[in-house]
Structures
1.
Amino acid sequence: MRVCIDGESHEGVAIDVTGVAGEELVRAIRGQDASPRVDCPTPGPVHDHVSILPPASFDRRDALAAAARALGHESATRDELENARAELAALSPPPVDMRAVRRRVAEAGSEEERLRERVAELRGRLRARREMGADATAVEAKLDEATRQLSEAETERIAAEQALERAERAAREARDRRERCLKLEDRVANREREVRRDLAAAVWDRFRSAVRAVPGNATVGATPGEFDGDRLTAALAVARLAPLDAPVVVDGVDHVSGAGAAARLLDAPVIYTR
Amino acid sequence: MLVVLLVVTYSQGARTTLRNSCRSHEATVVRRLGRAALFKETELGAFLSLRLREKHGDDVQIERTSPLNEFEAVPESVREAAAAYENRKAATTPYDKFAAGTGHPQPDAMRDSDL
């Protein structure tokens, strides 16, 4: 790799720099920042976990799983995971917008109700006029018109209700698919956990030896997951066991005296900043 | 009749919002059932349900449900069949066998008859 800082160029697998923030170097390694400039191989998935030591956060199982993959391990559960993911991706429940249909039913219902009252009222008026012996022609005409409108409103209300029922059936089917999606999401999450656990277990022995080889106080049991120590120690061990092409930034780790020592310890290219 | 609003969620996000709504409006919640809940049939119950649907769209199902009165809605033959089957002698007899040759309705016939 080659590191250019303020016009000065450094080359090698172990480079010491001063006065440059570790985070800046990480951005440069990822190609997100042009200055300082770092020419190096593209970082792989393990690098996400150990790009800078000490790491700001460290998910040990995730990091071990990434390291295991980089070492060529695979989980027996991988195919199941892929299948569940593919099935989930293929299942997109259709959108069902029932708002308009519901509104139509409600409006048709109130219109019908309004006309029904109107017809009753006109009937009353007609009866009253006839009893009085008055001319009822105008009221009769109004009643005929209202009755005709009521019959139309009934037809509309029935059609609206039928449309709503069809939409509700479609919504029910769409919900069946949503239900299936939820189950698949759960399955994907479970398989992902299993895969990570399997992968982490596959490199556990290497992790144990690596922890013993790096500085720091940590105890590792024989059973995968049995680890008692700080995240720097765990991250150093993962960086040591994983094959790394892109450089690791070591940001002033006290127990490691410079880039050369760090590169030997981690068996990886190192930029050491202090 | 004691009507309730049944709210069922179909995504993790909708489920989380429902859980939060239930927590902050305990008095409106009649029952919480995993990713579903029964709200009281009040304006607040409706408000909570509609807010959830506004946020999560089709991932939220809202139903207005009422208790079943079997004496009003269910034919006597079905009620009697249910009672008779639950009081049967042989626990392992499946219902269609149990019903055969008696006056009790067959599952197929019941399946195709709406209440």
2.
Amino acid sequence: MPVDVGYAGRQYPPTAAYEVGRQKLQEFADAVGASHQAHTEPSVARTLGYPDVIAPPTFAVVVAQRAEAQLFEDPAAGIDFSRVVHADERFTHHRPIHAGDRLVTVLHVDSITVRAGLAMITTRAEISAEDGEPVCTVVSTLAVRPEES
Amino acid sequence: MTDALTVGDEVARREITVDRARLVRYAGASGDFNPIHWNDRVATSVGLPGVIAHGMWTMGAASSVVADWIGDPGAVLDYQVRFTRPVPVPDPGAATIEVTAVVGALDPDAGTARIDLTVAVDGVRVLGKAQALVRLS
């Protein structure tokens, strides 16, 4: 089934809050080799002016992809994940994510284009604190290769 | 700090190795369990040479080079990459990504610098348009 271009422009309701924990940030920082102590030592993070340990620059993908699942796991959207390749990714931080944050995400499907069978899907995850304060904008483009003929 | 920098300056350089155990760790930490990042059979069935690194692992590993140079991971205001080539991760063994960070642009009024990253494996670039906007203290 081809990708349904009719999903372009869609906006999803806000997700349930994602609670950011110190241990999760440490686990993610370890995995990408982010060894700065602002990720693991609250005292170091406070010295830099943050209320608690902060996330590495790409941690927001963990939050964003939970929102993106609303699109990719929707059978009617026609996205076969075995044929998906990640094309690009961008994080615009309005402020660093820190432990203790409760983050709510609104997913937007900014565009879907199909050319010679190759579908390009650009999503935008607007991540904010529960009080509405903008935290991070995550823009991601996936390419879905055509089925083998 | 903008005074001390010139466009074209190389500010950081690092080699980072990645093996299969690292990919499993990243899968767990990130929640990205796509089997092309841990299962050769699945990876080759979709036309890949074998298991490849998560693009987001490569992006994340490269960002730490910038964060360590600037001394504050929270000073990375904006960070974007294009994924242009996969990074095959052999077993046994490991792949090595070479990260070089160069000042691409300076904005003294905003107090920011654009850091352009070159991320390569065996001299071949795996990321395109890899740019981090950082706040200078």
3.
Amino acid sequence: MKTRSQTRPAAKTPSPRNRSGGIGAHRAERRAGLVLAAPFGIFFVTFFIVPLAYSFYASLYRDRLIGGLTFTGMANYLRAAVDPLFWKGVLNVVIFGSMRLPLIMGFAILAALLIDAGTSKLAKVFRIGIFLPYAVPSVIAALIWGYIYGPTFGPIAQIAEGLGHDAPNFFSPDIVLGSLANIAVWQFVGYNTIILYAALRSVSPELYEAAALDGAGALKTAWHIKLPALRPTLALVVVFSLIATFQYFTEPRIFAAMAPGTITPSFTPNLYAYNLAFTNQQYSYSAAISFALGVLVVIASSAWMVHNNRKGMR
Amino acid sequence: MIKKNRSRRTWAGALVVAVCGTVVGLGGCASPAEEEPAGPPTGVIDTSTASGDITYWSWTPGIEPLIEEFERTHPDIHVTLVNAGQGDPAYAKLRTAMKAGSGVPDVMHVTLDTVASFGTEFLDLREYGASEIADRYLPFALEFVSQEGAIRGLPTDTGPMGIVYRKSIFDQYGIEVPQTWDEFADAARKLHAANPDVFITNLAPNESGPILSLSSQAGSRPFQAGSETELQIALNDPGAKQFAEYWEPLVAEGVVSVDPAYTDTWYKSFADGRYASWITAAWGPVFLQGIVADTAGDWRAALLPQWEAGQNISANFGGSAAAVPRLAPNKPAAAEFAKWYASAEFVAKWRAENKETFPAIKAYLEDPEIVDRESAFFGGQQVVKDVFLPSSQMVPADYQFSPFQDYVSAQISAIIGGALTQGGSLTEAFDTLQETVVQYATDQGYTVTTR
């Protein structure tokens, strides 16, 4: 920017410090910037800011079948703060996250290191194979796994029966979160692997050379160079994963038909918000639950980032 | 479904008398009111000259021939058929469109149990001449679509219940068609003991319809509307408890399965003969025909078992109506279509023939083409004449659904379904259900009474 505003007028006039010309070019550039940013800005405002503002506005009311809409201020939030259904849902996603996060990240790091170390064609096949589940839409994935988990005719139940055992009931309250976490691992390891692998590719070859000169083997290189190089990317994908965990919706929504009573209408906070709006017709409270969930997501991801920055500084 | 005012009582009462003439001992056979009919609101709009485009949301597959017939007889009206999902997903879309104030269909397919939940969001079709055809409907069907005298939809079909069973399985294990629920329980134990891979039936934990309907057969009346803001809720009344006490041991012993309906397991269990029967409505076999094609012809239908030998009480499960939303863009044409779709002889016959649906109009139950039809699926049995027609005449006409039935259904799946699949106490589950729904109704501003 500076170069342009200095050199352009210089070509026109002898004075290199022609201020008016500089500002003119500056303005044109700003205009171009605005025009280029406009499409994003319009979409951002229309599909993010406006709905956000609207749902916050809606959450300040109470709508009832009898009596209609009344302004209640923060009452919905106070109600959410002590709503056992909401907090049970939050607890469910926290348990779910504590299973899926370490598993996904662990497998993804391992797979990324393996792909990065591998040179044969097998690495390419492996790379595509591990990514493939991510290409399956989550509704389809939930249906596939619903079939696999099926208590009577599912393949696992059939094999177990063939061996003379009872298969565990994957839809029972005690293990359904594990069954769901398993689907998430299957689906997201590949996605995270690709991102981490890309980060590994950007490591300067000089570092590897230096390590090799210092006599580091493959394992030592992985430990001392590759893993530290992954850290910033890892911090990012964990944030994505955290957000997805808190907003968990699709799979439980599909599983609800197969496991009624276990996947209750308030099984996850997002499912709760959905059912409040579309089954219970409690739109205002649904908006409040959504907003409260958003706040929790911000808190959780901020906490993670602060924690990471501190660690980075040490 | 709210309080019956004078006019409603009168013509409904007249219909009840018609039914009471043939069946004795019905809870619904109260003495009719004496008042003169108040008549519809002034200024009935003539829909016979309506024209223009309308949109009809329905999930019934393959009804294009009906639309073509309507357009042939009503050349000035063009109908666009949209499948917006079955049941709850369709209602969620409809509610969203209503909330947004745009995109609302002109005519909506809605199940009989949900008409009341939309309340005044559906037009009172008396304003469009529905009173003229109202007395043609089965009384219990008309009750479901009526609200304080208003007609919020017109019934297109009904779901008198029966047992649909596999003859070869019953024969193989020497099971007689049970006449009472006690006999049914004995048969359940006998069948499962003879072959542990076979269950006499499946009680689906995710389907509120049969749970409510079978309770209603035991006398349960969970909702009674007072004025617009008053509601009596008794989901744990003696009828419901009787249902719970009956099924709880059968489920606990494992002689009745509790797989969720409309899942892979459920369909395959019918195909494989894992369930020997399905307690369902007249329309039930439509769901099976494609799945159990191999066993078509092996199926038979029978009346519901009775709680006491010699009783004649049945129940309704499902059935649909055509309703016109308040925000419909072309109301006169929409009303014309709804009236035609819910009453034309062509529609009733086509649907009976192709979809096994049971008419909502009394006159068609005297039509030999519908009544005497031999069903290939049922091995040539005249199921309408034998089972569903008598069943429809034994459905009490005083049953009411709640004004928030989507919520109640979801809670039944969660609470009753939870007890069924997780081995909890079914009777306690009905108490929990009652508490939960009362809490919700109170939150929603109703003045709730219990009994």
4.
Amino acid sequence: MMIDVRDVWKRYPGAWALRGVSFQVERGRVQGVLGENGSGKSTLFRILAGLTRPSRGSAEVMGQAVSVKTRQHVAYLAEINPFYDWMKVMEQVEFLARFYPMWDMDKARSLLSFMGLDGDKKVGALSRGQKGRLKVVCAFSWPSDLVLMDEPLSGIDPPSRKRIVEALFSEFRFGEQTILISTHLVHEVGEFIEDVMFMKEGEIALSGNADALREERGESLSEMFEMVAM
Amino acid sequence: MKSFFALYVKELKANKTLFLFLLLLIVGMNIYGLMKVANVSQEQLGTIIKFRLLVMSPINLAKSILVLSLPFLLAHTFNSEWRSETHYQMFTLPISRYKVILAKIAAVASVGFVGGEIVIGSVYLSMAKIADLVLEGGGGSIFILIGELMPFFDFVLIAHLLFVTYMIFIFGIVTGMEGVKYSVKRYRRLAAVASFVVFLFFSFFTLQGLGVFTSFLMPMLPFSYNIGFISMETSVMPYLSIILTGIIFMIIGLAMYEKRAEI
């Protein structure tokens, strides 16, 4: 099992972000996490990435509680841009390379080229879309076991979105790598998602195999997303 | 070690403007101070107190700026990381968080050491000059302090011991403060100020219990020392007590940052 989340609750000052969330994801699957803002998606991703801890319950990655050890296997694309503005693009990539023994610099260079990013440009001078592309470069420059993508397409211009989705399809190692992806733009990655989980107010409102749900309910994922959000 | 070095270099580069500004300021003030000291004549000397206050004031000011800026520099390295949201990147790296903090401490300590060497060198050169002037003039001043006639090696040893002790102590308090600050989810600034005060309060009583503050009323030397009529015999205990207190605070801060800090 790649991800095993059991009865996870998370409280922030004044509100519960997660209320007893439980789910499992097997290795090699692409799991979509869909829900409105404030439904608890980002909190769930942060817990799995080791940025925050559950108030109750347990979260495991590759059979181990989330820790430094599990972070060696996880590539996390945060919703925000966590890059150093003063670094050049290549400097940022080389900085991260020092922490991951399996980092492939040739792969990083080819991804930078594919994404149309100039390695000599300062990160601070990149547009939001370009920073989104850089996140994908950093996530796929090493063979991680789990990729956590929290709203990778949010607020990004259409050309950048197109490149990110193309990179996702070309770089993802089907059957080996596991992806947990959250997005509002369901139609952009709908065909990529194998299993889906709809979240509402910190709980899982609906979940299952994406194809089975489409067949069973006669609705697209976008329609299910709207129905759950109502 | 490779990852720690990467973090250390990153901290130096991230704060290079601030670090260079501080060092250039210290260099400039010390050069100005040394020029003033070099031009002092026997007639202008007056009392040593006057010499210290007026002639050496740029050097003393540089010393104070260095000492006071170090805790703020360390706190700044934490705050800038959280303000720019790059702590997301730091927290997801496959390393313990204490490495991230130790790299920050090492970077600020490096700046402290460079600045400290400049200040200690300037103070010694000034002391040598005043010693020459005092001896030329008969050397009868009752204000003469042990530092003025101390051999170079002893002076350097004691100055470094004092400076390193101070750095460990103050970095311990700041690390403890930052650990507490990022372990709470609300009122972080209040928590930082409160923990800073608590750590200082705690250290005051702990060290007072060990007699450190009263001992520091006299120049403390880690060995017996004789210059003319002055004879002293002290131990390294006060220094060790302060260093130990700083290390305890540092461990508290590191543990809280590692185990409790979250986004």
